[in-house]
Amino acid sequence: MNSRRSNKRKRAAGAPPLWLIYALLVVPIGSLLVFRYVPAASALFHAFTAWDVGGANTFVGLRNFIELYRDPVFLQSLGNLAKLGFFSFTVSLTVPFILAEMIFHLKSERWGFLCRVAVVLPMMVPGVVVFMLWKYIYSDAGPLTELLTNLGLDDWVHGWLSDPKTALLAIAFVGFPFAYGVHTLIYYAGLANIPPSVLEAAELDGLGAMGRILRVHIPLILQQAKLLVVITMIGIVNGFESVYILTLDGGPYNETMVPGLYMYLNGFSYQRMGYACAIGLLMLLFLLAFTMGLNRLVRSDGYDPAAR
Prior knowledge:
Layout: H1 2-14, H2 18-46, E1 49-50, E2 58-59, H3 63-70, H4 72-104, H5 109-120, H6 127-137, H7 143-150, H8 167-172, H9 181-192, H10 196-204, H11 209-220, H12 222-238, H13 241-247, H14 259-268, H15 273-297
Antiparallel strand pairs: 1-2
Helix pairs in contact: 2-15, 4-9, 4-12, 6-13, 9-12, 12-15, 14-15
């Protein structure tokens, strides 16, 4: 008993004092407040003002939001976002899942490891480089035009990013074949954590490969799928880098304009920072509502195999 007490005293004596721990927390928490929460609070306030950086701000109430309701460019950007979002949502959640299933069913551990490495390697390439490569692919002298010309399909050649009929579709296909590394690894981690006894029970019940996927795999990785749904939706709503790099201004004729790009242009090109903050606030409210609705729809109590 005395030896246990002495060990506890030694550990307590060797531990840093409590005030030092709190003092060390000041730096990360202070940085989080200054660089994250203060700008967010400032944007929330300035969404109700007519303001530009360095100038005076005037409180205008809901005028920015009323103007957004009547803004044809903003309304068109919402439609474009819905089209892009539906396509991106579908491929971002299905293609990585199929890829994760294929890797999970590999019998060789070595090949499974090599496939996971192959999925992760493209993540080392900066996104800007990827978008610039796709801009070259879509250019008049790019590989896509050359391929169609060599195949004798000259009628299929378009100004992919300058034609209003093909610009949005060209933006949507950036990232093909959509084998996103993070999504695939999250799905794979969920599949790898399924207890072997559950898989053996499903096999004894006579379930085939498709039956195991539909009745065992998918129910048991719902939490991973929910996380990916939230991550994907945040990326769709907030992202505009591909549109900006490929088209610069959401053209032609705003056919590729999205709310994130319109917010950026209003803030830094049109000098309407208050209006841009209003767009950002609407995007934030949508993401909050979506996340809360998803949490209510998909509960975290999991799946009970015994209840089958």
